[in-house]
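S.,

Sequence below, as promised.
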Amino acid sequence: MNNGLRPAAVTLIFFGTASACTALLGNDFEVVDETNVQGGSGGEAGAGGSGSCEPGTSSCADSTTLVECSSAGEPIESQCPAATPVCVGDGCRECEDSTTHCNGAVVEHCDGGTWAAGQSCDIGCDAGACLEVVDIGAGAAHTCAVLSNGSVRCWGYNKPDLLFLDGLDDPAEPGSYVTTPTPVEALDDAVQVSGGDAHSCVLTATDEIKCWGWNGAGQLGTGDFVNANSPATVTLSSNVVSLAVGMIHNCVALASGSVACWGLNEHGQFGNGEGGSNVFEVDPVEISLGTPATTVSSRYGHTCARVTPAEAGCWGYNLDGQLGNGTQTDSTTPVFVLGEGVQEIATGDGHTCGRDASTLVCFGRNNNGQLGLGTTGADVLTATIVTAVGAVTRIVLGGNMSCIVDGSDNLVCWGRNVEGQIGNGTSGFNVYQLTPFTVPIGAVQDVALGHSHSCALTTDGTVMCWGLNNHGQLGTGDIIAQSAPQAVVW
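The prediction came back faster than expected:
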């Protein structure tokens, strides 16, 4: 029953045909075709205006694209300008807060969308952080450092066709040496560096070996005798777990457990049963020690390795008893000289030292007091305890000197000091340091000894060098010898 009341007009939006809707509902309802409804998707019917954004607002489409809404409600995209290249929030800024970048050698921090100057870097800046030294290595008369971005810089002797093996003669030839750290080409993944007589090698983050420099004995491992002034990869059968660079040969311990060596094999320093004055190997030669090798060390003409379960064997040149087997006869195969419990073994030019958890032993040449026994004199043919030192956490041997890092991370050295390589402020003819001397540079995290110079990386990131400097191997910007530690000039 109608009772004379008529309902107010009702508008329905019907997404079908108007005629169908009328037929269904009758004439008491107003039918509006959907095509007459104002507003787009997501808008309200009858809202008016045809834009898809709020006039006067802005937002970022991506990190470099700004979207501004016009007065008509239309979005307009534009690229952020060079002065403010980053789109953040609702506008273009110099930078995004909490990020960093390099402005020359200065680290800048983003604050409020604007760069603010921060730390000034001594070595350089890369990827928004100051570069730091993470490893150092020394050759006969040159030094190298690995930086935190995987690059390498070297200084010192740089003329591979001039073989001043005694490190005493200055060729005085332009280009034969550099006195400050110089970048090595095409290296960005190094983690460790070591130097030989006139060549260098690195261990990379992917456990490969790359070498460069003099290659007269095949010591670059590239299958030829061609010198290289940029790093070349050595082909090995498996990944490397330990790298040792000798004067004219190199050896590595491989993940497979074997040891591989290449270069000069004059004294049997490869351990493969061969040797001789004209025996060279331009490709790596592998040997098995019976049990897996974990670390390897080589210097002039002999090589030593630590094997599981913590023994050590040596092979090669033995004129001074540096193999520790009680003879002075070369051995072209490994002889095991330190029993179970050895934690480290290191080689010098003519001597060897090893340690277990509590004891340091040395053997071989002692003409400069390098064995730490308090005297100079006859060679020592078997392992002899060094009683003058306490706790030892690392051993590093040089030409005719020895150093250890003690339990407090101090550097302690003894032996030849003719060129000031001990770092005690003295030098001169027949000057030796017969008792352990603590080098006054504080705690150290790495040590590298050349033929007649020494370098250390302190725990605060400073590289200090001292000793002979005739080729600029101290990195001080000159060729003046120093008997006390000096900071490398970056």
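The first helix runs from residue 18 to 25.

Coffee later?
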